[in-house]
Amino acid sequence: MQQKLILTLAVAALLLWGWQQPSAGGSWLDAAGQLLMVGYFIVAGLCNLTREQIKDHIDRMREAGTPLPAAAFWIGMVLLFTGCALVLAGWHPAIGVSCLIVFIIAASAIFLRFWERKDPMLRKLFQNFLLNNVAILGGLLLFLDRLPR
Question: Is the pTM of this model over 0.70?
Answer without folding.
Answer: yes
